[in-house]
Amino acid sequence: MSVRGIRGAVTVEANEASLISEATLTMVREIMSSNDIDPADICSVLITVTQDLDDSFPAQAVRQLPGWELVPLMCALEVPVKGSLERCVRLMVLVNTEKSQKEIHHVYLGGAQALRPDLAKSKV
Ligand SMILES: C=C(O[C@@H]1C=C(C(=O)O)C=C[C@H]1O)C(=O)O
C-alpha cells in the first residue's frame, strides 16, 4: 500500500456558490469513480481556487458527500499567475492505494483540460 496523489481541475461558469459546488463535486465524483476509491482510504484533500472564486468554500460541498465526514479537507488560494486560467478549482487528493503511479487517473474537466492536455486525454 502506498500514498498516491491524484490531481483534478475544473473550470466554473461563474462565481456563484451553487456553480462552484456543482463543478467541484463533478470533479470529485469523477476522481473517485475513475480510480475506484473509497473515501475511508483518503489521507487528505487540498483544494485551491483562483482568486475570482470567492462565493463559497468548495470544501463545504465536498464534506456533504456520504462517507466524507472524516476526510481532512483544506482550501487555499491558487498562485495568482498573470494571464492564467480563470475560475478554476483544483484538487490534490492523497490516497492509500495498491495502484502504481502509472495507474492513477488524473481528472481535468471543461476549460481545465487546457492545463494538462497530456493528462486530460490519457486514460492509462
Ligand atoms: C497546470 C496547472 O496549474 C498550476 C501548475 C501546476 C503544474 O505546473 O504542475 C500545478 C498546479 C497549479 O499550481 C494544473 O493545475 O495542473
TrEMBL record:
Its EC number is 5.4.99.5. InterPro entries: Chorismate_mutase_AroH, RutC-like_sf. Gene3D superfamilies: RutC-like. It catalyses: chorismate = prephenate. GO terms for biological process: amino acid biosynthetic process; aromatic amino acid family biosynthetic process; chorismate metabolic process. Prephenate binds at R7, R90, Y108. Keywords: Amino-acid biosynthesis, Aromatic amino acid biosynthesis, Isomerase. This is chorismate mutase. CDD domains: AroH. It comes from Paenibacillus agaridevorans. PANTHER family: CHORISMATE MUTASE, CHORISMATE MUTASE AROH. PROSITE patterns: CHORISMATE_MUT_1 (PS51167).
